[in-house]
Design goal:
The protein is mainly beta. The chain has five helices and 32 strands. It has a domain at 184-429. Strand 1 and strand 2 (47-48) form a beta hairpin.
Length: 453
């Protein structure tokens, strides 16, 4: 009987406890949100980018996920043998660490930005800093290569506001940085279908390398000097179907400066270059295409409008291996027409100038762009330095495609091949080798050239 009493008491106690727990559970149980794991750092000290990564800084590798925005809070360093690949729709905003020197992407390995027409990538600064006044401010350091850089690929990518002084330990420490800088004749660089705006000095300086630079737009590069592409020794490749407007000095300058045993050889064809060369003082530089110091190559099928000077070939170039032909020159003012053959290099330029170039006096051979007031600007406008009119140096609202009846239609040279370059890049990173067009400039009437404008 006593045992039965104890069993009943235990049973009642258990039921009371169970009831108390069930009543308390809806209000007393709290579940903490999980803390996102830190970026994955491997034993070698290199951080692997993952789904939780939002900030880029230090040594990293991996894939930037499609459609995501990342903040570049310090120098992103890609070690030798590693790669960072940006999928379509990636945005990288250079915010820095609050110091005076903007961050950069230092590339000892490979950096590939693989945007698409529908989902382009963006490499820029915070939106409130994207102003015309900041075009030469050099707000971040761009892409800085080294002797070990394997490759840089930019496809359907907008990149802007580059330059400024390099920080300690970087390839351009203490010096003004170029938008892109490479240092090896084995580095492969593919730049296609992209748009570039604002650079303090040279936009791209390859000290050697294998290049394929096609179907891009370059706006307002160089404050009071600097070239769009300033080629040094050991560089081989092609520059084709690009639109350049408002460059400080040259659009494209092949040179063989340096110690590489590979001679710089550059094919420059089917480009449209306007309003360049004026922010660099004097007449001792080129203004659109300039060969010098042992470089060789060719310039065919280019439209050159209201540049400070015509194509310039110095007498220290490899003159027997340079050909300049089937280019159209246009000048609004006599001062510009007088420099179609640059007066400081007249003899050497004439030596390589073919018979099919199109140039006469001011106002002759208007290329007939779809929408462009070709005679809008005065010589005072051109010589105004940083006070040049905005519309002189940017694409909008103009359209540089060709109207019917343009003298540029059908005037091109097509019986040549692009410079042969051995690339190892494959898949989405592989270069698109462009054949020449019978129409001059970046926008052939049959398509196949530059699509952006």
């Amino acid at each position: 009987m006593q045992k039965l009493k104890y069993l009943i008491i235990l049973l009642i106690t258990g039921m009371l406890l169970l009831n108390a727990c069930s009543e308390d559970s809806p209000t007393s149980v709290e579940i903490d949100e999980p803390t996102p794991p830190p970026p994955t750092e491997e034993p070698d000290g290199i951080t692997t980018i993952d789904d939780d990564t939002v900030e880029l800084v230090g040594e990293m590798r991996g894939t930037l996920r499609a459609g995501k925005t990342y903040q570049l809070v310090g120098d992103l360093i890609i070690p030798e043998g590693e790669a960072v690949v940006a999928e379509p729709g990636v945005t990288i905003i250079a915010v820095g660490d609050g110091g005076d020197i903007g961050p950069e992407i230092t590339i000892h390995g490979a950096f590939h930005s693989l945007g698409t027409a529908d989902n382009p990538n963006l490499l820029s600064v915070p939106e409130e800093l994207r102003t015309h006044e900041n075009r030469f401010a050099g707000l971040w350091g761009g892409l800085q290569g080294s002797e070990s850089t394997a490759s840089i690929v930019l496809k359907w990518t907008r990149m802007e506001f580059t330059g400024g002084e390099g920080g300690p330990g970087t390839p351009r420490a203490g010096r003004i940085r170029y938008g892109i800088y490479t240092l090896s004749d084995q580095t492969e660089v593919v730049i296609e279908d992209s748009w570039f705006y604002g650079s303090k000095d040279d936009f791209y300086r390859p000290v050697g390398g294998k290049l394929n630079i096609v179907r891009n737009v370059f706006e307002e590069m160089g404050e009071d000097g600097g070239d769009i592409i300033n080629v040094k020794g050991g560089t081989v490749g092609n520059v084709a179907y690009n639109l350049v407007i408002g460059g400080a000095t040259n659009a494209f300058k092949p040179s063989d400066d340096g110690e590489s045993t590979i001679q710089s050889t550059i094919g420059i064809y089917n480009n449209t270059v306007l309003n360049s060369g004026f922010r660099r003082a004097g007449l001792n530089r080129g203004a659109n295409i300039n060969f010098e110091n042992g470089a060789r190559g060719f310039a065919y099928n280019n439209i050159l409008v209201n540049n400070k000077r015509g194509i310039r070939v110095l007498d220290d170039s490899d003159l027997v291996n340079i050909d300049i032909d089937n280019n159209l020159y246009y000048a609004t003012h006599q001062e510009l027409a007088d420099e179609f053959v640059p007066t400081d290099s007249e003899g050497s330029t004439l030596q390589v100038l073919g018979e099919n170039n199109i140039f006469d006096g001011p106002g002759d051979n208007n290329p007939l762009f779809v929408n462009y007031d070709i005679d809008l600007f005065t010589m005072d406008d051109y010589n105004a330095g940083e006070a040049q009119p905005l519309e002189m140096n940017i694409v909008a609202p103009w359209n540089f495609r060709l109207l019917d009846g343009s003298p540029a239609i059908g005037s091109g040279k097509t019986d040549f091949e692009p410079i042969a370059v051995e690339f190892t890049l494959t898949g989405d990173a592989a270069p698109t080798i462009m054949q020449p067009s019978a129409d001059l400039g970046a926008y052939p009437t049959g398509g196949g050239g530059l699509t952006q404008n």
